Amino acid sequence: MWDTGSLVFRECSCRIAQRPADNVQLSCGFVRSFLSLIFFTFLLVGSCSSRIAQEVTGKTVEVPHFAIAVKLSDQAEKRLHSIGESVLVIAYFDGDALPGQGKYNPPNRDVFLGNDEKLVDQNSVARFDDSRVPLSDWKRLSDKNFFITINTVSARKADKNNLLECDDPISRRMESFRGKTIEVRCKLIAEPPSPAK
Predict the structure, then answer these.
(1) Any long-range contacts for 193-197 (C-beta under 8 Å, 24+ apart)?
(2) Interior CA angle at 91 toward 87 and 95, to 5°?
């Protein structure tokens, strides 16, 4: 790559006698800047690619399968349906650390294992059946029965703001989620309470 750059610079130098000085300086300066930008871009892309590959190829631990069934109020269901909006369920994984292995990381616990996001299906159920956490972080836990915290929001596809107010966040030990479907009730933000029956 740099051999090609040198040829370009030599070509610029050879044209000094043929062009006014200002034009030559401008032309060569542009070429130098352009090549520097290309080189920097290659470095940046290479760095990002390495980082992404490490995250994908690292050893992981499977999170037990579970599901969240979202029950919308009538008003919330009508509003989301009318604008073509969906519901997103976010699961955060964290736990307490072995001595000297944790980091102060509010609002999470000292070992943050990551998170996973699922859109609800046609039955308003979000299924977490392929979630995984990094093995290196899992080993830092003082109790391998880590916590799962659930947060449910509108998916922000049709509206940039969250439209839902839900019963969660639910924060429980992993084993209390294993193999279960847990119901979360949601209504529109600032929706008036339903009249008593």
Answers:
(1) 194/73
(2) 165
- Residue 52 and residue 42: Cα distance in Å, rounded? 15
Specify whether the CB–CB gap between 177 and 116 falls below 8 A.
no
Distance (Å, whole) CA 94 – CA 170: 13
The answer to pTM > 0.70 is no
Give the C-alpha separation, 126 to 117, whole Å: 9
- Residues 6 or more apart from 66 whose CB is under 8 A from it? 128, 148, 177, 178, 179, 180, 181, 182
Residues linked to residue 90 through DSSP beta bridges, in sequence order: 117, 151
Which alpha helices (H) appear in the chain, and where do they start and end?
2-14, 21-57, 74-83, 135-138
As averages over each run of 10 residues, the pLDDT of the chain (197 residues) reads 38 42 44 39 32 49 96 96 96 94 85 95 96 94 96 95 89 95 95 68
Identify the residue whose tokens are 């839902």. Answer: 164
Give the Cβ contact number of residue 165 at 10 Å. Answer: 16
Beta strands (DSSP E) in 73-173 are 87-95, 111-119, 125-128, 132-134, 147-154, 164-166, 170-173
